[in-house]
Structure to design on (734 residues):
């Protein structure tokens, strides 16, 4: 495969496995360490937010003070000291660039290095990008072209100022302020993220994408994304993430809310490649994320596709509330954990409406000393006549020191529901590996080939540009896992 | 000079000695057959030649084109032109046959310092090779060996042989589980690849295959050694007398 060949060359030339580990030397402006009402007020003021937004944040902050960190996931980490972190960091001198020409060249260079050029002429045709650097959005491309179609795609901080009514109506309507410890923390201190509104009957003319980059040290990233697909509309949204290599652990606690009205469809794809820590398990991102979509209208559809290769710890359950009748929820996931990574990820499919359907395909790959858990809930409520779910969970183990765990929860309160769960656990067989080797394919490439085959059903769900990138990532993430 | 020269080869698997001092030489252009009862070490020989992990060479050597290859990894041997058609080809779910062949072909080329072939060239090459062996194109789009019949799997091994054009091809019981039509097809494929600079080692349990692939030499293996050698007529004799008879004669 050409992709694999490229991967090998790229990795060889770098001589290192995590190629996004560099730090951009740029002057930063930060809030003081720790978290208190003053910091929340400061963040709100920096963003020039209206009063209602500040009140919303303060409400969340007070609530968070009374909450406790959840402990039910199969992940282990030392206690996080929330008072020693920074909650706001922004590159100085570029408070709010009006156009790409005003963006600090150092930032443009950073994204260039990450393979995300922000100059429109260099961009992949048909993909609009919002680039979030630590706590602020630094650039959004193709805004004008999208505006022609009536699509709003902008930093959420801008949406709060310019499209206040829309934000106020939907923010927190899918993930309530008090949903869980990390979501509540996010509600208090979220700094930036993307906002998308696709009007009635509009098929968004291009893929939308946000690229999240953590740069500053000792800083948490709390992005907030809100996507609203109005009646009969369609949008495909992609998200990518990277961070520098550091010995410390950094917290990333995002909230993503999707709202699909009658017959609307949202396709949300993630390639998560936060710094996973080194081979001894030092450093890496704690990725504690709440993602939820609400199929609010009849016949709506929400589809999550995720490729999770990074982070020291992943705690993430992109979910669908199938509220409207005839709605469809899908979850396609690849989670790779190598070395000392821990992943506890899955989904929740909440069937509320009649004739609702959901489909879950999860592919977990564990290598090194990693632990990988699928945790999923399928819940059928009394009104959800003829609800259907099919779940398929496949785990692949590489080596003898890793673990794969599957924890499915199924609740059915309607007798006409049909819920199916299939699960397999396998190892890369010696004979598969030998077969590849005997045909001239080297060890690393053979593992990448076999694992990509194992993940194929999920990779196929990704938009083209991402699928190629994801395939390479699968190979890189597993370098050194065999032999 | 011999293309392949095996000298006093001893191979252990999980501490148990299976090959107990086997010697064999094949010259370029020749086709040799190895016959022997179950458990005589035929498959161990094929794996040891291919360099499979777990097949420990405790003494002796394998000279291929004058080079001792015993320390080489399987993929390095493949790149040098050694090929093993497996008795039980392996399934790899999710990897299309075409993709696998492309990865293999280009990995070998890369290792030899040759330019890789682009997707279109590979597609054309594989299609033509497959068509010549009556392997339908649709099979190339399916996951490697997944759901293939025994005959389809074996035919795909021959397609690979034709594609890689090895200098030394080892066929491990390629005839097992084939009906007569499939057997003829496979034999035709092998015969088409006979060439003055190429050698083949055909491992089989039955004489049947050797009616179609006529060998220059036949070796009989028992208990990890070659116990009898002869021309193609030895295969017929074996069929008449059985392994026990030949082994007795040899002793």
């Amino acid at each position: 495969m050409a992709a694999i060949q490229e991967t090998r060359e790229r990795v060889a030339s770098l001589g290192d496995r995590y190629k996004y580990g560099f730090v951009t030397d740029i002057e930063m402006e930060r809030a003081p360490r720790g978290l208190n009402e003053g910091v929340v007020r400061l963040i709100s003021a920096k963003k020039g937010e209206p009063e209602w937004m500040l009140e919303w944040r303060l409400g969340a902050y007070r609530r968070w003070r009374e909450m406790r960190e959840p402990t039910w996931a199969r992940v282990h980490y030392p206690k996080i000291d929330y008072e020693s972190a920074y909650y706001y960091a922004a590159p100085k001198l570029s408070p709010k660039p009006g156009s790409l020409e005003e963006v600090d060249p150092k930032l443009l260079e950073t994204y260039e290095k990450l393979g995300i050029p922000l100059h429109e002429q260099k961009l992949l045709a048909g993909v609009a990008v919002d680039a979030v650097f630590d706590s602020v959005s630094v650039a959004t491309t193709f805004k004008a072209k999208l505006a022609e179609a009536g699509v709003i795609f902008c930093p959420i901080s801008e949406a709060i100022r310019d499209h206040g009514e829309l934000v106020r109506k939907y923010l927190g309507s899918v993930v309530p302020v008090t949903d869980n410890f990390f979501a509540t923390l996010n509600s208090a201190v979220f700094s930036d993220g993307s906002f998308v509104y696709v009007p009635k009957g509009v098929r968004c003319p291009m893929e939308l994408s946000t690229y999240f980059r953590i740069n500053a040290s000792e800083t948490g990233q709390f992005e907030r994304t809100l996507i609203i697909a109005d009646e009969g509309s369609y949008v495909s949204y992609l998200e990518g993430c990277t961070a520098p290599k550091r010995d410390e652990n950094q917290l990333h606690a995002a909230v993503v809310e999707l709202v699909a009205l009658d017959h609307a469809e949202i396709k949300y794809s993630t390639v998560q490649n936060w710094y996973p820590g080194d081979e001894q398990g030092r450093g890496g991102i704690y990725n504690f994320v709440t993602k939820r979509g609400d199929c609010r209208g009849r016949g709506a559809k929400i589809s999550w596709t995720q490729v999770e290769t990074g982070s020291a710890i992943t705690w993430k359950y992109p979910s669908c509330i199938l509220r409207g009748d005839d709605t469809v929820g899908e979850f396609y996931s690849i989670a790779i954990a190598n070395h000392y990574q821990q992943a506890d990820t899955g989904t929740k499919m909440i069937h509320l409406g009649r004739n609702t359907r959901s489909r879950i395909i999860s592919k977990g790959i564990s290598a090194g000393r990693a632990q990988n858990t699928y945790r999923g809930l399928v819940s059928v409520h009394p009104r959800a006549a003829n609800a259907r779910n099919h779940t398929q969970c496949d785990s692949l183990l590489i080596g003898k020191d890793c673990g794969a765990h599957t924890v499915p929860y199924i609740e059915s309160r309607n007798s006409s529901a049909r819920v199916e769960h299939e699960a397999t656990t396998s190892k890369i067989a010696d004979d598969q590996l030998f077969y590849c080797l005997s045909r001239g394919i080297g060890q690393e490439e053979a593992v990448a080939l076999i694992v990509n085959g194992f993940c194929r059903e999920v990779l196929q769900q990704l938009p083209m540009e991402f699928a190629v990138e994801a395939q390479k990532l699968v190979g890189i993430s597993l370098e050194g896992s065999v032999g | 000079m011999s293309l392949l020269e095996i000298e006093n080869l001893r191979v252990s698997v999980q501490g148990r000695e299976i090959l107990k001092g086997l010697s064999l030489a094949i010259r370029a252009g020749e086709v040799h057959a190895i016959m022997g009862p179950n458990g005589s070490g035929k498959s161990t020989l094929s794996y040891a030649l291919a360099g499979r992990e777990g097949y420990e060479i405790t003494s002796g050597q394998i000279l291929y084109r004058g080079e001792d290859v015993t320390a080489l990894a399987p993929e390095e041997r493949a790149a040098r032109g050694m090929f093993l058609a497996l008795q039980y080809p392996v399934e790899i779910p999710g990897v299309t046959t075409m993709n696998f062949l492309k990865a293999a072909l280009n990995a070998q080329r890369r290792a030899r310092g040759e330019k890789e072939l682009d997707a279109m060239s590979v597609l054309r090459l594989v299609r033509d090779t497959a068509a010549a062996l009556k392997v339908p194109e649709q099979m190339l789009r399916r996951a490697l060996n997944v759901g293939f019949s025994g005959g389809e799997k074996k035919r795909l091994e021959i397609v690979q042989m034709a594609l890689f054009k090895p200098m030394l091809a080892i066929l491990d019981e390629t005839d097992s589980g084939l009906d007569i039509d499939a057997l003829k097809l496979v034999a035709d494929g092998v015969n088409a690849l006979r060439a003055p600079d190429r050698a083949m080692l055909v491992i089989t349990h039955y004489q049947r295959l050797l009616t179609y692939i006529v060998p220059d030499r036949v070796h009989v293996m028992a208990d990890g050694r070659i116990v009898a050698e002869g021309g193609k007529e030895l295969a017929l004799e074996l069929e008449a007398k059985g392994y026990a008879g030949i082994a007795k004669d040899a002793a």
Remarks:
- Chain B has nine helices and twelve strands.
